[in-house]
Structures are given as C-alpha cells and as structure tokens.
Amino acid sequence: MRIMKRPNILLTGTPGVGKTTLGKELAQRTGLTYVNVGDLAQECQLFEGFDEEYQCPILDEDRVVDELEDRMGDGGVIIDYHGCDFFPERWFDIVFVLRTDNTNLYNRLESRGYTGKKLQDNVQCEIFQTIYEEAMEAYKEEIVHQLPSNTPEDLEGNLEQIVQWSEQWMKDNN
C-alpha cells in the first residue's frame, strides 16, 4: 500500500503571534503531525548555552535540524518556531508568517511574563517585519504568506485557509 504524500508546513512569526494555537488546531483538523521546536529542544536538550540577557536557553540549530531530518523527509509535518532561516529550504511546501498588531502582541507577551528588553525587542521585531523578511530570504517568495493573527476570527479564517490549501496540495501531489 502506497503512503499518501502529505505537505510540510512552517508556522513562524514573533513570539506571541499565535503559532502554537494555530499549529495544534491545524494538526487536529488535518491529521498532520505538529512539532513545537521549543518543546522538542527542551525534550531532547538541543541547546548550546544560556542567554543571560534574555534569560532563555540558546537553541543549537544544527542539532534541531539533525533531530527533525528523518521526520521532515516523510512529509506531513507542521513546524512551529519563531526563527525560520536555519531550516533547509527543501523541507517546506509552504511557509506562513503570522502577524499581530503591536498592542495585541505587547499584551500577550506581557501576560507571559516578558519584561524590559526582551519585551521591547520582540515588539520591535514585529514592527520591522523581521521574521517575514527572514522567511522571504530563506524560501521561495511564492511559498511565503503572511496571515493576520489578532482575533479568534483571524484564527478561524487562517485554519480554514490552510486546511483548504493542504487538501488541494494533497490532490495535486498524489
């Protein structure tokens, strides 16, 4: 029996834009496998140190890529991470950059306990479209899409759009 080929999707954007909420719900609706890179790094200890300034571990990007390589080759994976330029371009069929207005983002990050420089830098990252530009440089332009992520209605619309895209991709590629 032939295994149906399924797409790999990257959900990226500044911390707090809603990647995890979208990714988990998307996995439920599509049957794709959801991988939160932060959680994976924690489980497998894929760190190369600790950032004192931001009070967080420093991801070992090479070890993350090694850890995910086999899964990504099989397809059917949703990757959730706030960075995107270290993943191999060949891994993804589509890249979604979630975008949130600054007031929403500020409130979301503050409620997570972000303060000072960490809070300001993440909001600035969103203002300057840093992750979107990173995605545009790392992947083919035609597979990179921005999605608004401010309201429950945005979430529902994004889910519907990605589920439809996924279904069409499977028709076209099987």
UniProtKB/TrEMBL annotation:
InterPro entries: Adenyl_kinase_AK6 (IPR020618), P-loop_NTPase (IPR027417). Coiled coil: none annotated. One of its GO terms (cellular component) is cytoplasm. Residues 111-121 are annotated as: LID. It catalyses: ATP + H2O = ADP + phosphate + H(+); AMP + ATP = 2 ADP. Gene3D superfamilies: P-loop containing nucleotide triphosphate hydrolases. Its main location: cytoplasm. It comes from the Eukaryota. One of its GO terms (molecular function) is AMP kinase activity. It holds the Pfam family AAA_18. It is found in: Cytoplasm; Nucleus, Nucleoplasm; Nucleus, Cajal body. Keywords: ATP-binding, Cytoplasm, Kinase, Nucleotide-binding, Nucleus, Ribosome biogenesis, rRNA processing, Transferase. Its EC number is 2.7.4.3. The keyword Kinase applies. Broad-specificity nucleoside monophosphate (NMP) kinase that catalyzes the reversible transfer of the terminal phosphate group between nucleoside triphosphates and monophosphates. Has also ATPase activity. Involved in the late cytoplasmic maturation steps of the 40S ribosomal particles, specifically 18S rRNA maturation. While NMP activity is not required for ribosome maturation, ATPase activity is. Associates transiently with small ribosomal subunit protein uS11. ATP hydrolysis breaks the interaction with uS11. Monomer and homodimer. Interacts with small ribosomal subunit protein uS11. Not a structural component of 43S pre-ribosomes, but transiently interacts with them by binding to uS11. Interacts with COIL (via C-terminus). This is Adenylate kinase isoenzyme 6. The gene is LOC107595020.
